[in-house]
Amino acid sequence: MIQIELNQELLKGGMRFPEKRLVQVAHEVSKALKLKRKHNISAAFLSEKEMKKLNLHHRGKNSVTDVLSFTLNNEDYFGEILFSYEQAKRQAKEMKHSVRDEITFLMVHGLLHVFGFDHEKPLDAKKMFPLQTQILLKLGVDPRI
Description:
Keywords: Cytoplasm, Endonuclease, Hydrolase, Metal-binding, Nuclease, Ribosome biogenesis, rRNA processing, Zinc. This protein is an alpha/beta fold. The chain is 49% helix and 17% strand.
């Protein structure tokens, strides 16, 4: 079972990701991955400046990214997911869907990365993307985001 601790201090009231939705995402990903034990995940929204800096440091890309995820596997947290709200908002506008759906998509995507899934190689993508699609459909989100 996944338990997500989400830091939304950077966001104003109406921008915050609903707690109920957070629980739904954690539940559906836990079910899809058949997780038995508790996995604590730390998640936070960061400024674009911070995301750009971390993206350069960890991925060698000098640009803002929408989500970064890390497997920590320490005694407090199994993993960490970081989001850029502003980037998610831009992407939602471009794709003509809600910011809530975009963040749901990014959260599912980030969680799958934390649990070892990747999509850099075609064979890995064939494992990750169908699972991601399955989870998003259960959550009522169009997987073509």
